[in-house]
UniProtKB/TrEMBL annotation:
Matches recorded under Gene3D superfamilies: P-loop containing nucleotide triphosphate hydrolases (3.40.50.300)
One annotated GO biological process: cell division
Compartments (UniProt record): Cell membrane
Subunit structure, as described in the record: Homodimer. Forms a membrane-associated complex with FtsX.
Function of the molecule: Part of the ABC transporter FtsEX involved in cellular division. Has ATPase activity.
Protein's name in the database: Cell division ATP-binding protein FtsE
Primary subcellular site in the record, as a coarse category: membrane
Example of a GO cellular component annotation carried by this entry: plasma membrane
Species for this entry: Tessaracoccus aquimaris
Amino acid sequence: MITFEDVTKFYPGQERPALRNINLEIGKGEFVFLVGQSGSGKSTFLRLILREYRATKGTLYVAGKNLGTMNQWKVPALRRQIGTVFQDFRLLPGKTVYENVAFALQVIGRPAKEIRKIVPETLELVGLEGKEDRPSDELSGGEQQRVAIARAFVNRPKILIADEPTGNLDPETSVGIMKLLDRINKADTTVLMATHDSSIVDQMRRRVLELRSGELVRDQAKGVYGTA
Ligand SMILES: Nc1ncnc2c1ncn2[C@@H]1O[C@H](COP(=O)(O)OP(=O)(O)OP(=O)(O)O)[C@@H](O)[C@H]1O
C-alpha cells in the first residue's frame, strides 16, 4: 500500500536531510506506529505520503501510484484515499457533529441521499450516535477526536494517517480512541500512526518504525515504544 524506495528528503537550505535513504513497505491492512524524537522526521514521512512534498531522491509509491511522477491535478484523488487525523482535531468551528462529517462528503461531490445514509452509520461506528446535532466545539476532547476520525473515515479511505491522535487526551480517553482505530484497521484500512505515547505503543504491540535523525533505525513486528 505504501512503498519507500531509497527515499531521501532535503528541505531547501538544509544541510542534513529530514529523511535519509528510507526503504520499507507497508502492506494493505497493516497497523503501523511511527516513533522517534521530535525532529526525527515523522511529520516529513507522513507529508511525503500525502504528496505535500516530493522526495528529493528515491521513489515513493502509495496505493499503487508513483508520487514522484504524479501530476498535481491527480493529488486530490490520491488524498481522497487517505484519511487524516491530527492531535488538534481540526474540526469546523460553529458546525455540528453531523455537519463536520457530512462536509467531507459534500466537498467531494457525493449525492445527498448517500450522505444522509453514510454519515449516521459512521457516527454510530465511532460511538457518537445521539450527538449528531451537538456543536462540535462543545464536545469533550475525546468526543471531538471521534468526530475527526468519523470525518476521516466516512469516505472509507484505504489508508488512515494519524499524527499524534492521542496527544491532547488523557490516558483513559486515549484507550477508547485506540480501540476505535483498531476497529477501523480491522475493516481492512491501513493505519499509520505517529506517536510519542509509549504506553499505547507498548499495549498494542503492532509494527513499530523508529526514526532517528531522519534514518530508519528500527522496523519491528509486534514492537514496543523504545528499545532498552
Ligand atoms: N518545512 C520545513 N522546512 C525546513 N525544514 C523543515 C521543515 N519541516 C521540518 N523541517 C526539519 O526537518 C527535520 C524533521 O522534522 P519533522 O517535522 O519531520 O520531525 P518530527 O519527527 O515530525 O518532529 P515532531 O515530533 O516535533 O513533530 C527537522 O530538523 C525539522 O527542523
